[in-house]
Specification:
Blueprint: E1 7-11, H1 16-29, E2 32-37, H2 49-52, E3 57-61, H3 67-77, E4 81-84, H4 91-96, H5 99-120, H6 125-130, E5 132-138, H7 162-181, E6 185-190, E7 193-194, H8 203-212, E8 217-220, E9 226-228, E10 230-231, H9 232-245, E11 251-254, E12 259-261, H10 262-276, E13 289-292, H11 307-313, H12 321-334, H13 336-345
Parallel strand pairs: 1-2, 1-4, 2-3, 4-5, 5-6, 6-11, 7-10, 8-13
Antiparallel strand pairs: 9-12
Helix pairs in contact: 1-9, 3-5, 5-7, 8-10, 10-12
The structure holds nicotinamide-adenine-dinucleotide and 2'deoxy-thymidine-5'-diphospho-alpha-D-glucose (DAU).
Length: about 350
């Protein structure tokens, strides 16, 4: 089948990564896309303004926990691929209130698997063979690394937060639906994404916005925790590669080969801002950095060994952390009209996930 003729359902397409995936699918691949999203605080259709007017794009406001609507919309749309990104995604919120994470990430994934199985079981021949259910997961299912080593696809699962435990549960369900029912699934486990349209609760956008507002920039604990950063458009390209060419039943690790400690991330943001948008009082943004109490159960280090996706599917990241971070800071400087309403309406930058009580 020609790529442009493909019909792809994206769940969570109004979120940070989902919207990047839809922009890629519509603008680079040219296929048909149905975006299924509940529009929680993290869902934002302003991230898809240009795509909304494209005749190949459709949006339906739907909760993946609503089995009936999900089953009928899938049968109606008749997708070739389902890319499942809808989730509660913020670790700190999972500490404050795990319930939504269990509902959406576990029960919602179960519903989607059942709705997909019901649709897929009635397909014939090539359509049945070529169908893919792609679960977009995280490297956090593997737990926390020390100073050495990297997660491979064979690393033992060891999730340590309610968020990562809910994503690990979803991964297990997806694999079980493949082994037991033969549903052609692929999985991917990716490291920390960053880039435009990132909700301002996450480290990088939060730090940029706090800096610009002249507020303290809160670094958890020592600031020595390490994340492996991947520019979101590189992830979107990896996801389509996996969904369209990945082998059924396989999982693929995706990472940016860009390990940076949190304090270094924040210092680099300050350096870019000092250059592009200097403080009016002549002081440097570094003066706003404040060390605060640590996140409970804070994973020390994540690092991805992305050998498999490179050798099997020929994917490598195109952006370095330096180029990607500069683009990101520039985007937030130019797009206050995108992020300011989120601060007014959904989140004012207060500390989340402080206590495990
Ligand atoms: P996000 O929080 O920005 O977006 C999540 C989207 O899902 C939102 O649009 C929200 O409205 C929607 N949603 C939530 N609950 C829903 C429900 N019950 N029904 C339908 N829609 C619902 O998340 P993100 O950062 O874009 O992450 C997307 C996926 O990628 C998640 O599954 C996440 O676990 C995974 N992931 C994220 C990262 C990262 O660094 N952000 C890294 C690896 C994997
Ligand atoms: O590794 C992939 C995961 O990356 C995804 O599965 C998650 O959906 C995504 O949210 C992200 O999780 P993290 O917990 O790593 O991202 P976050 O931006 O919340 O935090 C990044 C690091 O920065 C982490 O070590 C905690 C720290 N931090 C975060 C915030 C919000 C701070 O020091 N200060 C902060 O204010």
């Amino acid at each position: 089948m020609k790529e442009e003729a493909r019909k792809i359902i994206v769940t969570g397409g109004a979120g940070f990564i989902g919207s990047a995936v839809i922009r890629y699918l519509i603008n680079e691949i040219g296929c048909f896309v149905l975006n299924l999203d509940k529009l929680t605080y993290a869902g934002n259709l302003n991230s898809l303004k240009n795509e909304t007017i494209n005749p190949k794009y459709t949006f339906k406001k739907i909760d993946i926990c609503d089995t009936q609507s999900l089953t009928s919309i899938i049968c109606e749309y008749r997708p070739n691929i389902i890319m499942h990104l809808a989730a509660e995604s913020h670790v700190d919120r999972s500490i404050d209130g795990p319930s939504e994470f269990i509902q959406t990430n576990i029960i919602g994934t179960y519903n989607l698997l059942e709705a997909s199985r019901s649709y897929w079981s009635k397909l014939y021949d090539k359509h049945k063979e070529e169908f893919r259910f792609h679960h977009i997961s995280t490297d956090e299912v593997f737990g926390s690394l020390g100073m050495q080593g990297a997660f491979t696809e064979n690393t033992r699962y060891d999730p340590r937060s309610p968020y990562s435990a809910s994503k690990a549960s979803a991964d297990h369900l997806v694999r079980a639906w493949h082994e037991t029912f033969g549903l052609p699934v692929v999985l991917s486990n990716c490291s920390n994404n960053y880039g435009p349209y990132h909700f301002p609760e996450k480290l990088i956008p939060l730090m940029i916005i706090k800096a610009l507002k002249g507020e303290p920039m809160p670094v958890y604990g020592s600031g020595n925790n390490v994340r492996d950063w991947l520019y979101v458009d590189d992830h979107a390209r990896a996801l389509y590669t996996i969904a369209s060419r990945g082998r059924a039943g396989e999982s693929y690790n995706v990472g940016g080969n860009s390990e940076v400690s949190n304090i270094q991330v924040v210092e680099r943001i300050c350096a870019i801002l000092n250059e592009l948008s200097p403080r009016k009082d002549g002081k440097r943004y570094e003066e706003q950095i404040t060390f605060v109490s640590d996140r409970p159960g804070h994973d020390f280090r994540y690092a991805i060994d992305a050998t498999k996706i490179k050798s099997e599917l020929d994917w490598v990241p195109l952006e370095t952390f330096e180029t990607g971070l500069r683009k990101t800071v520039e985007w937030y400087l130019d797009n206050q009209k995108w992020w300011q309403p989120l601060l007014n309406k959904h989140y004012q930058g207060q500390r989340l996930g402080k206590s495990a009580d």
